[in-house]
Every structure is written in C-alpha cells, then in structure tokens.
Amino acid sequence: MRPLRYSPLLVLAATCLSPQPAAAAASPAVPPPPPAAPSTDSLIFSANGSTLTGANGGGGGSLTWLHDFNSGVLGVAGEYQRLADAHWAFGSLSGSVNTGNAAAKWSFSGEVHLGSGDIDLYQGAHHFKYQVEGAGVAGTFGGRVTVQLQAHQYDIDTSHGALPKVALGVLWTRQLQTTVSYSRSVTGNLGTEIETLQINHYGRAVNWLLGGAAGHVAPPVVNLYTGLTGPAPQLREGYLGLSKSFGRTDWSILGDYLKVAGQTRITLTVVCTLHAG
After folding, report:
1. Which domains does the chain have, with CATH numbers?
2. Which residue of 68, 87, 171, 229 is surrounded by the most CB atoms within 10 Å?
3. Which among 215, 193, 239 has a CA at the least distance from the CA of 21?
C-alpha cells in the first residue's frame, strides 16, 4: 500500500503492474505508450490475500475513482486491510499535473492517506492512527530517461518520520524498461533504508514486471503492525506481476514475497480497471 507513488493502489491501477504490498517498490518511471483513445474516468477494484508465518494471514480490498484530464490525473480511493491481529482502513486523495514538451516532460504529484486501525493484543485492543502524506516531481528527458524525486511523511501508530526517495528509469526500447531507486529516512524513528530494482516489459498481448528490494525498514511502512518500536529489521522482497487488457477493462495480478522482522508474508493481489466511455 504498495503502500500508489500516487498511492500504492493508484500506481498499481494506473500502470496495471506496480506492486502495492511493499512500500519499497517503485512505479515505472516511464509509462508504456498511451492507448489510442484514453478514457475520461476509470473505476478500479482491487482484492488481495496474504499468508503470514507464525500468525493468521489476512486480506483486503479497495475502490478507486480516477479522472483523467488534459494535463493530469485526480484520484479518490478507500481501502480496508486486515493482517494477523491488526486491521485498518483509510481514505486517499491523490493527483498529478503534467507539463513540458518532447525534449523534457515534467510531472508534479501529491497524495494524502488518512485513517485508523486497531491491533488486538492480549491486554486489549490498541488503537492507532494511519496518516501518510507524499509529494514528488519527475522529469523525462528525450522520452527515455526519467529522474524522480519523492518524499513521504509517515505517522502510523508509534512510527513517525520522513522517507525521501530518488529513482532513475531508462526505457531501453519501446518494450523494455529498468528502474532503480534508493530510499532513506531522515527524521523520526523509521530507520529505513531500501534499494530496489524493477524491470518492466510492455508487450502487445501481455505486460509483465519483475522486481526486488533489500535493506532495513520500519514494519508499518510495509503494512506489518506489531505495536512495537526499535531498530528497523532487515527486509528482503521479490515480486512478479502480469497485466492484460480485455475490451474496456484491464486486469492485473501481482505476487509479492516479503521477509521482514523474522516474518514472511506472501501476498496475491488482483486489480480490475474499468474504463468509462
């Protein structure tokens, strides 16, 4: 949700491939060629299920409305998730504005996610707030090289801090793109530092992505709620996604393997995007 990156789910829907489960994952810096007749509005439905070692798994879903206009995108979403003894819900508002020319195109984005949740502990329920804000700017030069700067402020339960990110994407051909990114928290108690690598392939029939991440991360950043704070544990992640269009709908499926804080979570996410018009 992954944490999109627009919100993690908005990114997943907009590209039909960006992984939502882990905040470490980076959205493609250069999107695939746009369809011949882009729709004005889209409804995006998502559902996911997870397994978690040593505890019950979980699942959740979201509903997103996207409005495309000439120079940007506006999105409104609602999401609910449950994992082990924690459950939370939040609303999201995100948008972007695009400008530039063939030599240099610029995109300015912002997002906010507000909600709350509970962790069922032995001594009773522990209530926590969920608040994430983000802003970013990306420049694409010559239609092939994209540089992205992004920062998020996390205030989730007892975890707080700012997490900036820099990403570099290269579109080697019309079908193949690679993106690398680096994130490191600069304030608060997140103690997060993550490196990621993602490969995207845009085919005529099916698009796919493959990626991974490594580093240290505060569990709430990747939607693992323990109610505890301390040194950020080691993170290892890998993910694979596929997407395909059928008429007015785009379907995406993503598998994510995440190991952090001595726990392994495997998540399967399905997203359907319905284009109006």
Report:
1. 8-275 (2.40.160.40)
2. 171
3. 239
